[in-house]
Amino acid sequence: MSAPHLVIFDCDGVLVDSEPVAARVLSETLHTLGWPVTFEQVDRLFRGRSLRDCQEHIEEHLGRPLPEDFIEHLNERTYKEFEATLQPVPFVREALDSVLAHGLPVCVASSGSHEKMRLTLGLTGLLPLLGHRLFSSKDVARGKPFPDLFLHAAASMRVFPEVSVVIEDSVPGILGGRAAGMRVLGYAASGNASELEEAGAEPFTSMRDLPRLLGLG
Q1: In the chain, count of helices (H) and strands (E)?
Q2: Rounded to 5 degrees, what are φ and ψ at 165?
Q3: Helix, coil or strand: residue 92
Q4: pLDDT tens, 57-70?
Q5: Which CATH number covers residue 164?
Q6: Which of 46, 100, 126, 176 would you label with 7, given CA atoms 20 to 30 Å apart?
């Protein structure tokens, strides 16, 4: 298999191991609002979605609007936990080094904000490898599972979608990448390989395998 012309990485759960931290904080927050949802349920319901999408779902479940400062306070708590505990996804630095050593362009397409990406990638030491090639769902009209973000990233990088590869860990992200006409590799370290494959991804469980899957040997 020939190497792609562009590799588009999701951020949370693919580059930085932020999903467990964010899911725990959101679960604790929802308990205080009267929704005793578990960590596992939060991860299943909200992985890969923007905070605005999460807020709409929560308000629908609770049957009432959330406080206007809900996202601000949630981010404050989550970022504090990131600063204390956040780590890169295992072996992702080595995978990025290999991709870059082969001269392949890379970028990030995340449901999170630019502020969040700069924080998490900075804390884990990955930001220098990615520069300013960061694209957020806030840059487009529709986030994942729609293709808008991936098409925007490819257009900004001046690469055709059909020669781009997306690295994702969530069903919404996989659906968005596939809708954009891109090959999608599904990082399934959390044991959800069958779910990601059903959504249209080629699942894998270790970032050590990524260079080979990209045709880099």
Answers
A1: 11, 6
A2: -120, 135
A3: helix
A4: 999 999 999 999 99
A5: 3.40.50.1000
A6: 46
